[in-house]
Q: What sequence folds into this?
């Protein structure tokens, strides 16, 4: 939130007392310090593949992919308050559009990208258009169904390579740079994540971003203020779909092989988990959530077969003690 | 003066219960009018019919000559009718300024692309939204030191005023106030009377209020209409209403008519 007047810095009753955490937050409250922190973080991210080696680079690339997707889902769930249980479907639409067009029709990757975006946007309008008119959680059920329909279609259609999927997808060239090594993709995903963060921040702080919050807080009051709630929700849903499709497109060329099981319901829940865990509606929280969801199981690899159990207990503890997420929205 | 808002034979019912029965009602341009009546008379339902939240089974509702009935609530607001709610319905976890900025949404147009690219037109529009929201807050007398506060943390009387500022931000021709004085102190009620007069005199906005404080109603309104059990039983100047036997009868039984009608 924007600056407060000094008189208001006394926390009103009912708000948590300042803690070490709060002190850390206050420390980064000035724009200069925040900019310095961001630059340090960015330099660290740029240096990371050199420091941690090849295996970590693969994991971090995956974390960056999750960051992009979680930021997209955050627009739907966090900003507009729509529960989407089939987000992996848009991820799949992006990946399969690229896979099919490069493999079957020999398009260049860059030419397929706008098609992937358009396909996801169309899917978003088709699914969201009728269901967003309804109130409450019908959308959750419809999106759940949509996710499964996309996955099962991919498994049964010829053009998507049925159960074995599409393999040896050609990796893209960018001005004479063949994006092919793991390190190359790490930097591509880092760039995409930065763009995703900037877009999310700018959307949040705009007329449309505020409209999402109005509709999420009180649909009737928002409508009485002249806001078309269906249109505003549809915008969130379609923008979320576009994030998903872009993530999916780069996912396809990174792995060079995609199969229907990459887009299961479990994927959708993992994306949702990243958003909820980190702190819905707050960009740093969502990024943190994405990293926790990807790095958590990796860091627990030493405990062997019990790692998912440990991870699950950790998630439950977080939700018990920080129900708003690890890094929730702070309000004036 | 010409009728700005006109209801003809509006009938509304829910599951066999008639809420409004062939109601005829009008508000002139630039007028201050009031709608009174015992609890459950159908006053808020009438507001909800005008603003598109309820769809009456019969009758016509016209605003500046155009039919309102097919419009959705947000379209009604765009057409020039703004409202407040009986129970204050601010966006509680957002700042006071952001709350009022919501009213500008329907008068502006920047979309996602403008927001992401921060186009010059989008920036101009954002500045305009800020400036106009600030002007509305100024107008209702909310000091800039409160603008960044969480709306839910404001004093109740101030929340009511923020709600009015939010409605004014939509640039209405008609402002519907649903029990704006409920829960206010005596001093705040006096300020409200001044504010309503200023809204009409300085901004040219017609005001229609539902109010239980009949003293306030009689002191400020040019026309008063009385609704009882879904029927419009009287319409006239405050003086005529206070001496109307049907009105006195409607108020008898529930409360002391003399006190209720501020005789």
A:
């Amino acid at each position: 939130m924007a600056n407060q007047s000094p008189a208001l810095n006394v926390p009103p009753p009912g708000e948590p007392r300042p803690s070490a955490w709060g002190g850390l937050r206050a420390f980064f409250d000035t724009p200069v310090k925040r900019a310095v922190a961001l630059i340090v973080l960015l330099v660290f991210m740029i240096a990371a593949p050199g420091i941690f080696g090849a295996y970590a680079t693969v994991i971090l690339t995956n974390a960056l992919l999750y960051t992009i997707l979680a930021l997209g889902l955050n627009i739907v769930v966090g900003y507009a308050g729509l529960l989407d249980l089939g987000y992996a479907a848009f991820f799949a639409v992006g990946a399969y559009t690229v896979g099919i067009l490069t493999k079957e029709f020999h398009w260049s990757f860059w030419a397929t990208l706008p098609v992937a975006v358009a396909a996801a946007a169309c899917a978003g309008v088709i699914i969201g258009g009728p269901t967003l008119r309804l109130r409450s959680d019908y959308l959750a059920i419809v999106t759940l169904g949509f996710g499964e329909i996309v996955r099962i279609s991919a498994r049964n259609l010829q053009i998507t390579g049925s159960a074995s999927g599409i393999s040896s997808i050609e990796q893209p060239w960018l001005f004479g740079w063949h994006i092919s090594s793991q390190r190359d993709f790490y930097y591509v995903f880092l760039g995409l994540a930065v763009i995703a963060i900037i877009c999310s921040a700018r959307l949040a702080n705009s007329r449309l971003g505020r409209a999402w919050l109005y509709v999420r807080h009180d649909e009737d009051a928002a409508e009485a203020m002249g806001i078309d709630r269906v249109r505003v929700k549809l915008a969130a849903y379609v923008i979320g779909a576009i994030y998903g499709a872009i993530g999916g497109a780069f996912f396809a060329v990174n792995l060079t092989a995609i199969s229907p099981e990459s887009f299961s319901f479990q994927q959708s829940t993992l994306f949702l988990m990243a958003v909820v865990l980190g702190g819905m509606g707050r960009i740093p929280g969502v990024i943190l959530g994405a990293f926790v969801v990807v790095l958590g199981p990796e860091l627990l690899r030493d405990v062997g077969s019990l790692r998912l159990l440990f991870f699950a207990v950790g998630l439950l503890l977080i939700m018990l003690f920080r129900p708003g997420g690890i890094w929730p929205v702070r309000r004036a | 003066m010409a009728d700005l808002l006109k209801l003809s034979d509006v009938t509304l019912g829910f599951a066999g219960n008639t809420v409004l029965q062939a109601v005829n009602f009008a508000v002139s341009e630039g007028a201050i009018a009031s709608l009174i009546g015992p609890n459950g008379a159908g006053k808020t339902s009438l507001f909800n019919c005008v603003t598109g939240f309820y769809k009456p089974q019969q009758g016509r509702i016209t605003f500046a000559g155009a039919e309102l009935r097919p419009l959705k609530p947000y379209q009604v607001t765009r057409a020039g009718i703004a409202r407040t709610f009986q129970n204050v319905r601010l966006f509680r976890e957002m700042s006071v300024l952001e709350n009022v900025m919501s009213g500008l949404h329907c008068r502006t147009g920047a979309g996602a692309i403008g927001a992401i690219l921060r186009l010059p037109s989008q920036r101009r529009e954002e500045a305009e939204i800020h400036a106009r929201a600030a002007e509305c807050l100024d107008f209702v007398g909310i000091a800039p030191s409160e603008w960044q506060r969480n709306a839910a943390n404001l004093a109740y009387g101030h929340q009511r005023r923020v709600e009015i500022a939010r409605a004014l931000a939509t640039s209405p021709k008609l402002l519907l106030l649903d029990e704006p004085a409920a829960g206010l102190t005596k001093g705040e009620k006096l300020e409200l009377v001044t504010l309503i007069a200023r809204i009409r005199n300085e901004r040219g906005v017609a005001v229609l209020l539902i109010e239980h404080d009949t003293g306030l109603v009689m002191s400020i309104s040019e026309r008063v209409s009385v609704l009882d059990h879904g029927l419009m039983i009287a319409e006239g100047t405050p003086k005529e209403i206070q001496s109307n036997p049907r009105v006195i009868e409607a108020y008898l039984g529930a409360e002391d008519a003399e006190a209720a009608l501020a005789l």
